Amino acid sequence: MIEVRGLKKSIRNGNRTVEILKGIDLSVPQGQFLAIMGASGSGKSTLLGLLAGLDAPTEGAVLVDGTDISQLPEDKLAQVRGKKIGFVFQSYQLIPTLTALENVLLPYELNAEGGDGKRRATALLETVGLADRLHHYPVQLSGGEQQRVALARAFVVEPPIVLADEPTGNLDSSNGQHVLDLLTKRQREANTTLVLVTHDRQIADRADRRIFLRDGRIVSDESGKQDGNGD
Ligand SMILES: Nc1ncnc2c1ncn2[C@@H]1O[C@H](COP(=O)(O)OP(=O)(O)OP(=O)(O)O)[C@@H](O)[C@H]1O
Ligand SMILES: [Mg+2]
Hints:
The chain is an alpha/beta fold. The chain contains 7 helices and 10 strands. It is globular and about 50 Å long.
């Protein structure tokens, strides 16, 4: 489903070139819950951004369903991104001038999908416990509420892949648990591929697999859930 080959990312900083990712090979089957761990600065967000096609690699390929998204022209890339990938940012990234409902509806409308997007967006906001916040603007919502709007937005086109960059990093433990439960429920029920960056070992232990980055390389790759509750 996602296949990463020889992925490198360098950034020019003045007259120096900084190598952020130094050759990543990774294959993530459909339906897998993969956690990415590693120290601050190890390249986790950079890798996630490349998987989403939000950024272009210096070398290597990112194949989504066999298509190398790093070689696609911008319009085709936007199509793949719009239909196949939901992205949840650490900092929510809601559009401040749009209500919760409008934020969730936006990817749906950009995809020009038929059907009743408004009903679907409303239903999703109900699922994440925000039925009474549909017409609130982001500034009128708490951090946990904003992150739940961001989840609903990532789910609205029912993408087969959800990428989440520390989605619980700014939340208290009960809101964090709620957001995580929503993500994993969808991964199980819709067989979504879920790639989640986290610093939290307990969260990572719930994943099917964990990879650890150090200095732009994968230094460890562990399979199997660690929590032992058969979940
Ligand atoms: N645009 C940029 N210009 C220069 N350096 C960058 C740029 N983006 C990232 N870096 C550097 O690349 C390295 C990896 O950054 P990245 O954001 O991927 O780390 P991370 O693992 O997500 O860290 P954190 O856990 O703090 O979020 C860092 O050293 C960072 O400073
Ligand atoms: Mg990061």
